[in-house]
Amino acid sequence: xxxxxxxxxxxxxxxxxxxxxxxxxxxxxxxxxxxxxxxxxxxxxxxxxxxxxxxxxxxxxxxxxxxxxxxxxxxxxxxxxxxxxxxxxxxxxxxxxxxxxxxxxxxxxxxxxxxxxxxxxxxxxxxxxxxxxxxxxxxxxxxxxxxxxxxxxxxxxxxxxxxxxxxxxxxxxxxxxxxxxxxxxxxxxxxxx
Length: 193
What we know:
This protein is mainly alpha-helical. The protein has helices at 18-44, 46-53, 58-83, 87-117, 126-157, 165-192. The radius of gyration is 19 Å and the shape is elongated.
């Protein structure tokens, strides 16, 4: 069993490719600017932001953080296993990675349902406008990430190996971006105000 070499002069270096890192930079910039705007708006309505933040379920936020961080750990194991061509192990870790993403979405859906039942929709106030826009945008990223990971899983399950190292690394890079975005959103939305 021979491991796959990494060609540092390849266009796909850094892991995931240059294009993926441009996308990640743009996404982080977008979320970062939205978070800055949220903080600035909070200065105009500190009581609204504080009382609204208290209506969030911090336990759900913490559990979702654990789901994504754990999922990110398993994604790292996918890449490590794939590099040494341990395909079955890589597929197993990928299933655990996707499970973390699915658990995140289930818990987020429960949280969203509770907010809608309580009338805390996107039009409720400025805080909840930011809450819904930022977290829904992140949920879309997680869904896209799960679609990407599913396609990698299909590639791993095929008898003829059709996946390249760059494919696996690109999917891992995207998934870690989802983790990183949540690690920016969680403290600002659930803890600060």
